[in-house]
Design brief:
- The protein is α+β, with helices and mostly antiparallel strands.
- Helix content is 12%, strand content 13%.
């Protein structure tokens, strides 16, 4: 059963319930689209990139403890999407199948694991978690995350905000939504090792804010200088690809992998690792349920707050709740048709 208990990176159920008082009746302003320095965002192909298998140094041990130890890791060859799954691609899936995402459905009160009379009514409405920057410095997640009824992949900033943009990464999806898309598209969610191998592109992960990635310049969460060209999510193709020809492997939106999350890497699990079992998964920020591992950071990562704009970065993510800064891409075990 999927439990809507976290935002991002994670918040407890009580904290999530407390957020609703800040968003009841609130109209989220569109603070996500302005760009200080226009960037050219050429159209890029959807054709998956073939990567030969190989061995690489996975992890990083000088930033956050849960990203180490560095281990020599081998993966088999695979194909991988050149960019995150876009709204355009997800819309084609919805048109073909009639699929309705979890964020578009009313919430079962049993998912909160608290008495129903303790749940604010807005928390039972269809919706998702939206980043809403405060006007003041803060270290409190509740000051910049809101559960917003009516937010979903079609309306990423809520019912009064703008519609989704075709070539931006699709967001506000839960794990089951991503798996449904993957099955339709003939692919699968990558393992953490596959994802990091593709993102590393032959280079060691280093704690340096990249120039060619959509991250946060300024003091998070209240001031974004936008010197990389975007204040919020960018369309795919706005930043240079890595040496594997892959776009936005770092920054823009976090990307979900198939691995369950546990802090640190098992140094003995080196050959096509798939992460811990569901029973052995553990997320210290979300101990009540198994989280999935997300990689690469997002446009919200800043040097003063979230130094996750690196291939080795990893965190746990609630599989039952979408957010406005988490997306995904697919891998394939054979050459995709067409």
């Amino acid at each position: 059963m999927m439990i809507r208990s976290t935002l991002f990176p994670v918040l407890g159920a009580a904290a999530l319930l407390g957020l609703v008082s800040a968003c009841s009746g609130d109209k989220t302003e569109d603070k996500q689209v302005a760009a200080a320095t226009p960037r050219q965002c050429p159209a890029i192909a959807d054709t998956p990139v073939k990567l030969a298998g190989g061995t690489f140094a996975m992890g990083e041990d000088d930033v956050y403890a849960e990203e180490g130890p560095v281990r020599e890791t081998t993966v088999a060859g695979f194909w991988i999407d050149p960019h995150e799954v876009t709204n355009r691609q997800f819309a084609a899936f919805v048109k073909a199948t009639g699929y309705v995402t979890i964020a578009e459905k009313p919430v079962d009160p049993k998912q909160f694991q608290v008495p129903a009379d303790q749940i604010p009514p807005d928390m039972l409405k269809a919706g998702s978690a939206v980043f809403t920057p405060p006007d003041f410095p803060s270290n409190n997640y509740a000051d910049w995350w809101k559960y917003l009824p009516g937010a979903n992949w079609k309306k990423p900033y809520g019912p009064t905000g703008p519609d989704q943009v075709q070539n931006e990464p699709v967001v506000h999806l839960a794990w089951d939504d991503m798996v449904a898309y993957a099955k339709w598209a003939g692919g699968r969610i990558p393992t953490e090792a596959e994802w990091e191998y593709a993102a590393s592109a032959g280079e060691r992960s280093k704690n340096v804010q990249p120039a060619e990635a959509n991250s946060w310049q300024g003091a998070f969460p209240n001031y974004n200088a936008e010197s990389d060209g975007f204040k919020g999510i960018a369309p795919v193709g706005c930043y240079k690809p890595n040496a594997n020809g892959l776009y936005d492997m770092v920054g823009n939106v976090w990307e979900v992998t198939s691995d369950f999350f546990r802090p640190g890497h098992d140094p003995d699990d080196r050959d096509n690792p798939k992460g811990p079992s569901e029973n052995n998964a553990y997320d210290p920020f979300n101990p009540g349920m198994p989280s999935r591992t997300v990689k690469g950071g997002s446009y919200l990562c800043a040097p003063n707050y979230c130094q996750r704009y690196r291939p080795a970065s990893r965190q746990g993510r609630d599989p039952g709740l979408g957010t406005s800064n988490v997306g995904f891409r697919l891998v394939y075990d054979k050459a995709p048709a067409g």
